[in-house]
């Protein structure tokens, strides 16, 4: 998956959230902090992850996230990286070998 498409999706998502809240968030770049910016709370972050997963047909492994992953660029890289996606067969009942 191409990181630029994921990045664009995240930015558009944040812009939509800001518009709905009538909030001004300024320039959104790779270092834009998704939580500390105040535009997303923890539930908003979970909703963003769910939207990413639906939009791009992936399942992100969030068990080893670090602070860098809480930025636009970090989350885009994580979502675009196959080794950061969860093994769906381990999470679905009846799929274990």
Secondary structure layout:
Elements: H1 3-21, H2 42-56, H3 72-80, H4 88-91
Helix pairs in contact: 1-3
Structure description:
This protein has 97 residues and is mainly alpha-helical. It is 48% helix and 0% strand. It is built from 4 helices and no strands. The longest helix is centred in the first third of the chain and has 19 residues, at 3-21. The chain is globular, with a radius of gyration of 14 Å. The protein starts with a helix and ends in a 6-residue tail after the last helix. Residues 87-93 have low confidence and may be disordered.
Radius of gyration: 14 Å
H-E string? HHHH
Q: Say how many strands there are.
A: 0
Dominant shape = globular
Q: What is the structural class?
A: mainly alpha
Which percent band covers the strand fraction?
under 5%
Q: Tell me the number of helical segments per DSSP (H or I, 4 or more residues long).
A: 4
Query: Unreliable segments (pLDDT under 50, ≥5 consecutive)?
Result: 87-93
- Sheet with the most strands, sense and barrel status: none
State the share of residues found in helices, binned by percent. 40-55%
- Mean pLDDT metric: 83
Ends apart, CA distance between termini: 28 Å
Name the descriptors:
about 100 residues, mainly alpha
Short description:
This protein has helices at 3-21, 42-56, 72-80, 88-91. The chain has 97 residues and is mostly helical.
């Amino acid at each position: 998956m191409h990181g630029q498409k994921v990045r664009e999706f995240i930015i558009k998502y944040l812009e939509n959230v800001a518009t709905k809240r009538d909030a001004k968030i300024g320039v959104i770049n790779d270092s834009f902090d998704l939580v500390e910016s105040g535009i997303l709370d923890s539930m908003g972050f979970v909703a963003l992850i769910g939207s990413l997963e639906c939009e791009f047909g992936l399942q992100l492994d969030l068990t080893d996230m670090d602070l860098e992953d809480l930025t636009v660029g970090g989350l885009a890289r994580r979502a675009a990286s196959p080794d950061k996606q969860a093994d769906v067969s381990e999470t679905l009942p009846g799929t274990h070998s």
